[in-house]
Amino acid sequence: MILFVHGVPDTPFLWGPLIRALGLKPDQWMAPALPGFGCPVPEGFKCTKEAYADWLVGQMDAVGRPVNIVGHDWGALLTLRACSLRPDLVESWCVTNAVIDSQYSGHRMARMWATPLLGELVMAGMRDSAKLEAALAEGGMPANMAAHEAPLVDKTMRRAILKLYRSARGLRFSGDWENDLANLPAKGQLYWGETDPFVDVSVAQRFAKRWQYPLHIEPDAGHWACAEHPGSFALVLKEFWATKRMM
After folding, report:
1. What is the value of pTM for the model shown?
2. What confidence tens digit (pLDDT) does each residue in 60-71 have?
3. Burial, 26: exposed, middle or buried (Cβ in 10 Å; 0-12, 13-18, 19+)?
């Protein structure tokens, strides 16, 4: 089973092009929505990074056998955390355009979302879906995806984003989230858009060097490289999945 985990401010729609490029059948994959992202927030769910990581572990465990998990953006961060907590649930993992790295201080928008009052003001400006669509496209999101996702950034999602980023201090990770990466399953892969304006490729290179995992850099691609170049990403994944697990 392949488990796809989207990021912020996305929904599972992100994975459509890649799933088609991989030629997957419906019983071969799952792409759940993060609570609050195009779906309701369950009662009592706190929308913190810990809550989302625990939720993802639950999704993995429910499959009933080790999964091949692919995560983008916050989905990548949660994938790394969940895999480091429960490596027994993982056959392989691949993350794209985000990693847990204490040397990374977060992009400008992440820092604003993490700041009380300023974050609320920024979110107020995101209520205009037409303007948000244009901003997402300007940031590198494929136009058809921006048109689909922008209207879904509703009050529920905006609140969830603020809580999530504040729990992570605007993407400043340290302590167990980074130290526990030593527990990651051996079969891992990084895929990165070379021109990502939010998380520079040097962050991926530093992670790959420190933790000794392969990195594929996609030229002429940005933060949403997985959706910009689904055919290329599909080839990387197929080759990766076909290799024997490293020991």
Report:
1. 0.96
2. 999 999 999 999
3. exposed
